[in-house]
Amino acid sequence: MPDATVTTDIFTTMIDPGEAAHFGKLAADWWDPKGSSAMLHRLNPPRLRYLREQIDAHWGGDPQGFAPLAGKRALDMGCGAGLLAEPLARLGATVTAVDAAPENIGAARAHAAAVGLAIDYRAGTTDAVAGEAFDLVVSFEVIEHVPDPAAFVRALAAVLAPGGLMLLSTPNRTPLSRLAMITIGEGTGQIPRGTHDWDKFLTPDELTALIEDAGLTVAGTRGLAFSPGAGFHLSETTALDYFVAAVRA
């Protein structure tokens, strides 16, 4: 069950309407690997590699197994049109996926139906899952878009079941991330203009503090880097982007 000591006032809509509208406009071609969400498609392989590594490490699973999340509930918060929710379902989880943009949820439901996946898609934010409990809580590249990151982390921690695992990712607030994601990425159209506000990026120390304040323990941090030869890949450097794994203290 969720942490009963957490009051329900954290389960309020914590998304900037402008952010929701921005991403809602991208819904139509979210699944097009050459469309406006092409960068997310390029990010997905290392994200899924990290996800699988953490699942196997946390639950002692067989890295060769096909359904390491069988019998487990997973939450994808800020799911977009389902690029992560669908792989979670294929890994065996019962998936609930939430996004603040109704257009994204519509696109996600349509795509899941077309490929035969049963995913509980909901329009909203953390309020949409208040009072529930999930073995795995995932929110990748989302926290930098919410007005109150501390409340967002508390809300995610509140629905993490005992023995569960929470995985977050976000850009680091460094000169490299400003150059790569905003100056080059948005400036050249590889990322839709207006997607990022560099001032909202969190450093690993800042995100760790928010997680610990929410009653969880950081179990590890891993970088996401880019090179011309390897593309996006897992790395020991967190200068561009990074993942954090957390468990209940």
What features would you describe in this structure?
This protein is of the alpha/beta class and 249 residues long. It has a single domain (8-58, 69-248), classed as Rossmann fold (3-Layer(aba) Sandwich), CATH 3.40.50.150. Helix content is 33%, strand content 24%. It contains seven helices and eight strands. It has helices at 17-24, 38-59, 85-90, 102-115, 149-158, 175-186, 204-213, and strands at 73-77, 94-99, 120-123, 134-140, 160-171, 216-227, 231-235, 241-248. The protein has an eight-stranded mixed beta sheet. The longest helix is centred in the N-terminal third of the chain and has 22 residues, at 38-59.
Q: Characterize the biggest β-sheet.
A: 8 strands, mixed
Q: Which whole number gives the mean pLDDT? A: 87
Helix content: 25-40%
Q: Assign the CATH superfamily.
A: Vaccinia Virus protein VP39
- The CATH topology annotation reads as Rossmann fold
CATH class descriptor = Alpha Beta
Derived from helix and strand composition plus strand pairing, the structural class reads alpha/beta
Number of DSSP E strands: 8
Range of strand content: 15-25%
What is the alpha-carbon Rg in Å? 17 Å
